[in-house]
Structures are given as structure tokens and as C-alpha cells.
Design brief:
5-stranded mixed sheet, 640 residues
């Protein structure tokens, strides 16, 4: 066998051997920190550079696989509640039940006090209240709005969403006594209204309202707009079913046509059921496209880009648009365009299949928007809890623990506060803001996976992470700096506090820890250790200046604790000998005069000190710390 074959076989064997420990970790569902152990063990055993490189590569691959698995599990949990709504709507057949479900879900999704739906009356030329949820005023429930009157009439007339955070102070709307009286009876202040449209026609308005001032975010407006589009399609489906039933009752001779239409509608309903079931299992947008392909027996794909003209026309019209031999249905939420569902190679598409494609595009847009909204909502909740801890307010510890438990965080565990900052200067303000957003996003992801908290603060990011048994604040700071730096592709420096064993013990516990972490962060910057992580204990006696609680006992124990313990066990005088040795200018000859012992006795005692403290104990830096620790020990125990 040639040398190349031998070397190749050896490399393959090395790669297989490197994969094995990580496959076992994946099978066990081990924590991310455990994936460093095989590499560290190989280095400790003096493994070859080739084996260590193979282990590093296998570790990176395994961590990517682990992250993907965790991401899928998270997505399934985040989307299950929202797509239960889509599943319910797909199964409804009665128009009144559809409308009630739409209003209930709208109120639930946006968390408002009241939600209601009005439908246009073409005969009267106005819009009337059809269904309300959370309403208590009878006059409000019976309102009719002329086109252009009030916020709802303006939405119905212009087919555009409108929002006000204080209805009675908003002069954009035409106020009437009847409308204002009804709104005042209900006590509404902030109102958001979005049109229910079918193609170019507005069939009604979906509202969400609060009895207090509230600013509706752009994402919330887009979410309600997407839900209104799904609601309009559900109303259309219910109307089609009603028309079908009426035709069956009054037109016996049209039975065959009606049966065909019923079959078509059932197929559309089947599409909704399949999509809801798929998403509840954790599927993504490409899985949605695959399910529609199977139902229509045609090739449907999700694409982030498509023919610009056709895509814009589809978004504007809310319909699938033909482009050559393809059909394009925009996946959009309000003004935001996510991409398109593209049906390939069927220029003569059946109208019902076209409608099915359009509804699938609506579900896809709702899926994408829901994922983002769920992630942003969790980010805000985690950030708000940490902000409350950092602002040192007097809060009920029980309520803090309950809020943390809902985020899978345990405030009774030992935690470390970490202050993180980007050390690379951005060329302009926009790029700097973008870099900070990337850092915040990476910090939130790390906190969420470690059952911790994260928030943006003081131009950087602060994290509150649990400390695992056997771990140290220093190791956690260094791992965090490496993790965040890798995630944002820039140097991230992290300063850590000392471990906190009871976060709710006092209102200032987390505040003091954060200040300590920031002092360590500033010290790293002054020392030129950009991209590193450290805690106060890493700076020797300087750590006493950095630490928020001035842990003198901890410094003494870390520095000369072994000598103190040796004297206490053996009844020796090593501490006294060290005191005399430093007082005599580190001269054994003068030390023996101070202690009134033989110089050999001094040498033997100093040799014992060296075995306890390490061979470098007399180096200038170590000697300074030891001398300081001796003085602090003597001050703490003046009777000795």
C-alpha cells in the first residue's frame, strides 16, 4: 500500500474517532459547554495537532447541529399557539362563528381591552358594528358609521389602516356626536383599525382598542393587517358556503354544479387544515410550499425574490398574478414584503387553485410575522425583568421569581452579572447602531438558551447568567466574550461580577454587581485586553478596587490561605516568618536576627512557604500581593 493511501486511511480514522464523542454528546442532549471537553482532554493527553484539529472541526459541526435542533424546538413552541388560530378558522363553517372567532383572536393576539369588527352595508352606504369582544356599552355595540366618519369610517372609505393613541384629541377624523358618545361610553382611548379587503374591495374593518393611551407599533399594525387579510378570506369562504347551501335549497336542478363547488371548497379547507397541522409540527415556509404543491398537484416554491413587476402587483392587489407560465402570490404584511409563493408552469390556473395559492401566501406571511413578533416579545419581557432588577426598585421578591419562572429562569440560583461591549469603532452612527443591535440579538439568544436574562444598557449589553457548579465568574466571562464575538464577527469584551447567591436579597444586589462588572470591563480596556473576559478576582489586589463588596477575606484566602491553614493545623510560625522576612527586606540573615532563630531554620521555613505558594512567590508581583495579604490578615485579626 502506498504512503498516500496509508496517510489517507489514517486521516479518515482520525476524523471518525473525532466524531464519536460529539455524537454521544448530541445523543445525550448535553449542554454546549460539554463540547469543549473532548478537545481539552486531547490536549491534556498530548494529542497530535491533526487529531486536535479534527476534534475542533467535529465540535463546530456538532454545535451547529445542536443549535439547529434547539432552534426547531423553540420554533415549534412559539408558533403552536398562533397556528391553532389558523386551524380553528379553517375548520369553521358558520359565518357568525367565523366572525366571533376573528374578533376573539384579534383581541388575544394584540392583548387589547376591546376588539370589534364592522361590515360595510352597500345598500345604506355606511358600515355597521357586527361583532364585539370585551365591549360593555350598548350604544357602542349598535353604532353605524358613515363613510369617512370617525376612524372606522375613514378606514372603510380609504382602504388604509389608521391608528390613534388618543382618539378624542386626534383631528384627522371627522368626529360626530353619535360616534364620540359611543366611544366615550365604552371608555376607549387608543384605537387601531385595518381594512378587511377582498381584492380591491373593502368589506369591513377589524379594530383593536385600549381604554388607555397606547402606541401601536408598526409590527403590531402589520400583524393585525395580516390577520385581517386571513379574516377576509375566512369571511369569503363562509359566504361561499352560505351561498352554496342556499343554492342547494332553492335550485334542485343545479345539484351537479353545487357538488362540484362544494368539493372545491372542501379542498380549500383541506389546504388550511394541512397548513395548520404542518406548522404546529414545527414546519417552515418551505414546508408550507411543499404542502400546497401536494394538494394542488403542482410545483409551488417559496422565493425571497421574484419578477419585480408581478410581485409588486400581487402585493398591491392582494391576488396571485400571472407572470409568463408562472403564478406569483406576494407574501407580505402591510407594507413589508417577505417574498412570494411561486406556482411554476401552469399559465391556465383554475380560479379556485389561484385562491388557494393566495390563501397559502397569507398563512405564510402570518407565520413569518408571528415568528418575529414572538421573538421580539420574549426579548422585551426578558429585558424588562432585568431592567427592573438593575433599577433597584423595591419589588416583591415573590413576583420577581414568578416573572422569572415564566422565562425558565431561577432567581434563587447563583448568578453572575456580565457587562459586554463592542470594542471596534464603527465608521458612522448607522453602522454603530446596527452593530449594537447584532450584539443585543446575540446576547438575548445566549441568555434564552442559558435560562438567563439580557438587556441593552449604557451603549452595550448586560447579561444575567446562572453559574454552573464548578464554574467560575472568570471562565463564564471568557466564554461569553468568545461566544458573542463569534456571533457578531467583532471583538466583544466582557467584565463579570462576583457570583450573587440571592438576587432578591436586596434592591441593590444586582445594581452593585453590574457596577462591578463595568469596572472590570473598563479595566480590561485600559490593559489593552480587547475581546477578552475577566472578573475582579483576575486582577489580584487590584481586584479589591474593582470589586463592589471589597472582598478582603476572599483576597487573603486566595493569596496566603494555604499558609494560614498550614499554621493552624501544625502550630507552625510560617506567617510570622513571612512578616519578619518582608520587614527585613527579604534578607534571611536579618530575618533570623528578628526571629532569634538559626538562619537554616529561616531557610527551611521559606522553603515550606515556597511549596505551599508556588516557586514564583518571591517574584515582584507575587511578593507585593503576599505582603499586602499579610497586612490585611494582621489587621483583620489584631490579637494574633
Amino acid at each position: 500500500m502506498s504512503r498516500d493511501h496509508v496517510e489517507g486511511a489514517a486521516a479518515l480514522t482520525t476524523a471518525h474517532d473525532a466524531d464519536a464523542p460529539f455524537l454521544e454528546l448530541l445523543a445525550r442532549g448535553a449542554a454546549a459547554e460539554a463540547y469543549d471537553r473532548p478537545v481539552l482532554e486531547a490536549r491534556a493527553e498530548g494529542g497530535s495537532g491533526e487529531r486536535i484539529a479534527a476534534l475542533e472541526h467535529a465540535k463546530r459541526v456538532a454545535l451547529r447541529v445542536r443549535a439547529e435542533l434547539e432552534g426547531r424546538r423553540r420554533r415549534e413552541a412559539e408558533l403552536s399557539a398562533l397556528f391553532e388560530t389558523a386551524h380553528d378558522l379553517a375548520g369553521l363553517r358558520d359565518l357568525d362563528a367565523v366572525l366571533r372567532a376573528i374578533v376573539q383572536r384579534a383581541r388575544s393576539l394584540l392583548g387589547t381591552d376591546v376588539a370589534y369588527l364592522s361590515l360595510n352595508d352597500p345598500a345604506e352606504g355606511d358600515t355597521y358594528m357586527r361583532v364585539t369582544e370585551g365591549s360593555v356599552a350598548a350604544r357602542f355595540q349598535q353604532l353605524r358609521l358613515g363613510m369617512g366618519e370617525g376612524l372606522g369610517g375613514l378606514v372603510a372609505q380609504t382602504a388604509r389602516p389608521y391608528v390613534t393613541d388618543d382618539y378624542f384629541q386626534d383631528e384627522r377624523f371627522r368626529h360626530t356626536n353619535a360616534i364620540d358618545s359611543g366611544v366615550r361610553d365604552e371608555g376607549l382611548v387608543a384605537i387601531l383599525g385595518v381594512p378587511l379587503t377582498l381584492g380591491p374591495n373593502v368589506i369591513g374593518v377589524l379594530f383593536a382598542a385600549d381604554r388607555r393611551a397606547r402606541v401601536f407599533e408598526r409590527e403590531q399594525i402589520a400583524l393585525l393587517g395580516s390577520f385581517a387579510a386571513l379574516a377576509a378570506a375566512a369571511i369569503d369562504t363562509a359566504n361561499l358556503l352560505t351561498e352554496t347551501r342556499s343554492a342547494l335549497a332553492g335550485l334542485e336542478h343545479a345539484n351537479e354544479i353545487i357538488r362540484d363547488r362544494s368539493a372545491v371548497i372542501e379542498r380549500a379547507s383541506d389546504v388550511h387544515d394541512r397548513l395548520a397541522e404542518l406548522v404546529l409540527r414545527g414546519g417552515g415556509v418551505h414546508d408550507v410550499a411543499a404542502a400546497v404543491s401536494q394538494v394542488l398537484d403542482k410545483t409551488v416554491e417559496f422565493a425571497e425574490t421574484a419578477a419585480a413587476g408581478a410581485l409588486e402587483a400581487s402585493r398591491a392587489e392582494g391576488r396571485a398574478v400571472r407572470h409568463r407560465d408562472d403564478w406569483i402570490a406576494a407574501v407580505a404584511a402591510g407594507e413589508e414584503l417577505f417574498g412570494a409563493l411561486v406556482l411554476r408552469g401552469h399559465p391556465g390556473l383554475d380560479p379556485v387553485d389561484q385562491r388557494t395559492l393566495e390563501r397559502a401566501a397569507m398563512v405564510t406571511s402570518l407565520l413569518l410575522l408571528a415568528r418575529r413578533s414572538a421573538a421580539e416579545a420574549e426579548q422585551r419581557v426578558r429585558g424588562e425583568l432585568l431592567d427592573d432588577l438593575l433599577e433597584a426598585r423595591d419589588r416583591d421578591p415573590r413576583l420577581l421569581r414568578e416573572r422569572a419562572a415564566r422565562l425558565h429562569a431561577d432567581l434563587d440560583a447563583t448568578h453572575v452579572v456580565l457587562a459586554a461591549r463592542l470594542d471596534t469603532a464603527a465608521p458612522d452612527a448607522d453602522q454603530e447602531a446596527a452593530a449594537r443591535r447584532r450584539l443585543w440579538s446575540a446576547a438575548f439568544h445566549l441568555a434564552a438558551t442559558r435560562q438567563g436574562l439580557a438587556a441593552a444598557r449604557d451603549g452595550g449589553t448586560v447579561l444575567l447568567l446562572p453559574l454552573e457548579p464548578g464554574d467560575t465568574a472568570t471562565e463564564l466571562a471568557r466564554r461569553t466574550a468568545q461566544h458573542l464575538g463569534t456571533a457578531v464577527h467583532e471583538a466583544v469584551t466582557v467584565g463579570a461580577s462576583a457570583p450573587i447567591r440571592d438576587l432578591t436579597a436586596g434592591p441593590h444586589a444586582v445594581v452593585a454587581a453590574y457596577e462591578e462588572g463595568r469596572r472590570c470591563l473598563d479595566a480590561l480596556g485600559l490593559l489593552g485586553r480587547s475581546g477578552d473576559g475577566a472578573a475582579a478576582e483576575d486582577f489580584g489586589f487590584l481586584g479589591l478596587l474593582l470589586a463592589g463588596d471589597r472582598d478582603v477575606g476572599g483576597f487573603v484566602d486566595r493569596t496566603i490561605g494555604r499558609v494560614v491553614a498550614y499554621d493552624e493545623r501544625r502550630g507552625t510560625d510560617l506567617l510570622r516568618t513571612l512578616d519578619a522576612y518582608f520587614a527585613a527586606g527579604m534578607s534571611p540573615a536579618r530575618t533570623k536576627d528578628e526571629l532569634h532563630v538559626h538562619v537554616n531554620t529561616v531557610a527551611q521555613r521559606l522553603e515550606r512557604v515556597g511549596r505551599l505558594l508556588g516557586d514564583d512567590w518571591q517574584s515582584p508581583a507575587r511578593a507585593l500581593e503576599i505582603h499586602l495579604a499579610l497586612r490585611l490578615h494582621r489587621l483583620a485579626a489584631p490579637g494574633r
